[in-house]
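Notes for week 9. Today we move from apo structures to complexes. The key idea is that a small molecule is not decoration. When we ask for a structure prediction with zinc ion present, the ligand SMILES becomes part of the input, just like the chain. The input block below holds both the sequence and the ligand string. Read it once before you look at the output, and try to guess where the molecule might sit.
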Amino acid sequence: MPGCGACASGDATADSQISFSLATAGGKKGLIHMNIMQQDILQQLEQLQQDAQTALILATTTESVRDWYSEYLSRKGRLTAILRNLGNLSAEERPLIGKVANEVKSALEQALQERQAAIAQAELDAIRSAESVDITLPGRPQNLGKLHITTRALRDIYAIFTAMGFQIYDSPEVETDEYNFQLLNMPEGHPARDMWDTFYTTTPGLLLRTHTSPGQIHAMREYAPEPIRVILPGKCYRYEAVDASHESMFYQVEGLAVGKHITFSDLKGVLINFANQMYGEGRKARFRKSYFPFTEPSVEMDIDCVLCGGKGCPVCKYTGWLEMLGAGMVNPHVLQNGGYDPAEFSGFAFGLGPDRIALQKYGIDDIRYFFTNDARLLDRV
Ligand SMILES: [Zn+2]
């Protein structure tokens, strides 16, 4: 064991004393005599400082720095654990160890502050960089809401017919067999019922209306014997095999005019006026004979194709004509069912499909797009 000038070799305490070089002890280098306990604590403090400084470099987040503080400097940390042994030292020995311990503690606290500041700055820089705005980027277009194509077609239809003196009349979507069929000249077992595949409810005699025509009876029974002009818009339901041009739920707009001296010319005039306003002036129209149980005579009305001008295209199936609606003079029995005397009153009725009108007007090839909630459809028109 090396001695030094300050200790007497062979002293009774020589065995328990060592010479220890400590850079931090008292702020000066030198060989200091101390016992094993002192040496051990000082080594522990030196080791602690080294460990702590290395660990602090590896702590890169606020959370890991908190863990570091807890391990080294907190009341349950390693520094406190070492200092607990101070009680075993003599009163003379304690000040040196206490001084070194305080120096270690201050050095670590200083390092901690610097580390915290560096981490806070790094976190701030990260937020700034993540939230920074590049003012040279072009703006993003805003998606503006639009009305559904069917809604637009319906509103156009309302505007045109109300300008001609028609009122909008609401009638129920759940109907009785009587209103949906019987009062429209289709008693039970009538073959014309096959034209409408029907959704029946679990209540006998109640069904989802297959067309808006039962509204004719409701309107007539409400207003008879006054003359009426109404349109009856709404949803209809049919048990259809769904394809590009058929849905099991679709819109219809029924029209009805009842009064004295109403003729087929009135029907033609109203419908041609409608076509010109809906599709643009100068439309050609043609009427083909048809059959509906509740009108007599009955017709189908076609207009020249709005997309190809009559030359022929996929939408008009190369015929140059688009089927627009079905119509006719109200059958005398139906007038009677509505409360009008057919000897005195006459009327016309028509039924058109706003979905189909929207398909034709905007050149859309599949009605199923209307119900898929894909907003890109709205941008196509
Ligand atoms: Zn065409």
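The longest strand covers residues 249-259.
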